Structure formats: structure tokens, C-alpha cells
Amino acid sequence: MPLTKPAPPPPKPTFDEFSTPADFNDKFKKKETTKYMNPCSVEEKQSMKCLDKNNYDKSKCDYFFIQYKECKKKWLEDRRQLRRKGLL
């Protein structure tokens, strides 16, 4: 049996826009201290819906989890920048 190379991994998807509303920071400053706000709730719901649909096989939902992870990463970086500038 000849040795074969494994298939290369699929390319990482790129995402141009996320679902974070433009006025999110204003809403975040005005929220009650006990109220939780998630700017990536659309991506979160999509990933959970995909899991439900695919019998919790996470490998079939990689696209949605990567999208959620990238949204969360961008949001946290934006928050860090605002804190450094003293705007939040």
C-alpha cells in the first residue's frame, strides 16, 4: 500500500463585517450593571443552532465557531483600545 499525504487543511475563512451595532459602545456605557450585553450574539446563536442541527458534531460547525471567535476577538480588542484611551 503506497503512502499518501493527508489532504491540506481548508483555508481559514475571512470575515469582512461582524454583527456588532455601530452604537454598541454608547449602549454599553448606559446599560445597568447587572445587564449582560453580547455584541456577537448573532454569531453565538448561529453556532449553537448549527450544533443542534448536526447532533452536536462540532466539526461540522467550524465555520460558525471561527466566525464567533473572530467577532469576540475584534470586540475585546476594541474594548481594550477604548479603555487605553480612557473612553470606557
Word description of this protein:
- The mean pLDDT is 81.
- The protein has one domain (23-85).
- α2 packs antiparallel against α3.
- The protein is mainly alpha-helical.
- It is built from three helices and no strands.
- It has helices at 24-30, 41-53, 62-85.
Short description:
The protein is mainly alpha-helical and 88 residues long. It has three helices and no strands. The longest helix is centred in the C-terminal third of the chain and has 24 residues.
Q: Structurally, how many domains make up the residues?
A: 1
Oligomer class: single chain
Number of helices: 3
Tertiary shape: elongated
Strand percentage: under 5%
Q: What is the typical, i.e. mean, pLDDT?
A: 81
Distance between the termini: 62 Å
Which structural class best describes the helix and strand composition? mainly alpha
Radius of gyration from the alpha-carbon trace, in angstroms: 18 Å
Helix content: 40-55%
The number of strands is 0
Q: Provide the succession of SSEs.
A: HHH
GO cellular component, one term: mitochondrial intermembrane space
Keywords: Disulfide bond, Mitochondrion
Subcellular location: Mitochondrion intermembrane space
GO biological process, one term: mitochondrial respiratory chain complex assembly
Please write out the topology.
Layout: H1 24-30, H2 41-53, H3 62-85
